[in-house]
Amino acid sequence: QISSATSLSWSTRIQGFAICFVLGFVFSILGSALIALPKGLILFAMFYTIGNLTSMASTMFLMGPFRQIKKMFNETRVLATLGVFLFMILTLLSALWWKRALLAVIFCILQFLAFTWYSLSYIPYARDMVRKTITSCV
């Protein structure tokens, strides 16, 4: 099924995944480092959000874009997916339009948490483990 999702070879798909994932990570770290510069809030919001989008898009190399989009919006992931996109938009709006640094950082943290929750949905029982861990800590 996976090989019918795209015409790329398996090694090319793995390379595309790795490159996009690493680029996404680098963009996110770069955005965090640029926050101290003048106009750093705008650079932070842009690079961090582009980094998360690139990381999310990296999995499209593995299963193909249409199958990935279908999986993103299935019943178990739809709220996490919408949360990621909502917080990406709010991060950008708070930095570019409203020019509120604290709000941008808060939305960035929420973006990270939503992206983490989205990513955990691909690991069997990972969300249950996180819920139980948080419940036992609280």
UniProtKB/TrEMBL annotation:
GO cellular component, one term: cytoplasm
Sorted UniProt keywords: Membrane, Protein transport, Transmembrane, Transmembrane helix, Transport
Function summary: May be involved in fusion of retrograde transport vesicles derived from an endocytic compartment with the Golgi complex.
Protein name: Vesicle transport protein
Residue ranges of the TM segments: 16-35, 41-66, 78-98, 104-123
Protein family: Belongs to the SFT2 family.
Entry annotated with the keyword Transport: yes
Any GO BP annotation: vesicle-mediated transport
Membrane topology: Multi-pass membrane protein
Compartments in which it is found: Membrane
UniProt main location, coarse: membrane
Highest classification ranks of the organism: Eukaryota, Metazoa, Ecdysozoa, Arthropoda, Chelicerata
